[in-house]
Specification:
Pathway: Secondary metabolite biosynthesis; terpenoid biosynthesis. This is soluble epoxide hydrolase. This protein is an alpha/beta fold. It has one domain: Rossmann fold (3-Layer(aba) Sandwich). The protein has 14 helices and 8 strands. It has an 8-stranded mixed beta sheet, sandwiched between helices. Helix 1 crosses helix 14, helix 2 crosses helix 3 and helix 7 packs across helix 8.
Amino acid sequence: MEGIEHKIVDLNGINMHVAEKGEGPVVLFLHGFPELWYTWRHQITAFATLGYRAVAPDLRGYGDTDAPSSISSYTCFHIVGDLVALIQSLGVDHVFLVAHDWGAMIAWYLCLFRPDMVKAFVSLTLPFRPRNPKMKPIAGLRAFFGEEYYMCRFQEPGEIEAEIAKYGSKAVLKKILTDRKPGPPCLPKGNPFGISPDTDIKLPAWLSEEDLKYYANKYAQKGFTGGLNYYRALDLNWELTAAWTGAQVKVPVKFIVGDLDMVYTTPGTQEYVHGGGFKRDVPFLEEPVIMKGTGHFLHQERAEEINHHIHHFIKMF
């Protein structure tokens, strides 16, 4: 963590916290939920050593970046607007893009809206999701997976926040970060994360008590609402992106996922990734990498291997 610089950048109407290290071509790292710039700690130091300028912001609503109160301030256009302004603030025309989870969702939009700014994109865990013109996302998810599916449970403002508060940021984050249950995540009401005072969850080797404490402290200060508002804007994104129905993503892409990942093991994902749909929508997609025995937070769990895959791909451009 030594030598990582932290700054607050005024852009697109918000103050954004950015961590960076190194000099050279920019690699922009985008975190998911419920995470922070800190999730890229292994990549920042590694890529700075390899001769890159590694840049990892706290996205809108997270950590030390501003969190507007309105759900409508978290559309894909707002977040992509933040990233375009960030890239411009770095004094470069384009970047290598590496993103995970919700960061990858936003990264796909950046590639779709501004392909001129992306030299190549490495997506961790999340394949492209083409827009279905016949059904809004939340109605579709509810129909397929039920009301307890996590994205559906996140929709009502304040509801899941109250349930998180009941158990505390640290306990909830510990459960989410260490969970390796495959398949679509469902959160029953009452005890959505299955936390029991009698069960002591052992931290895996890749997540230290210090790491957990950093996340927990930031979420205790900021709350979870900013990150949850990305889910609450899903239907609004659908309405706003009608003009991109059927559009292809035309940047070079590498997709990497763990075979235990909750997204990869959700019905329909593997069929899309391996059945031709993904390659049709993303014509410059390289052969996907499926990492055996690996969960959702693969860039932390298998950091050295992930760094190798990223570097091997981006050095071609």
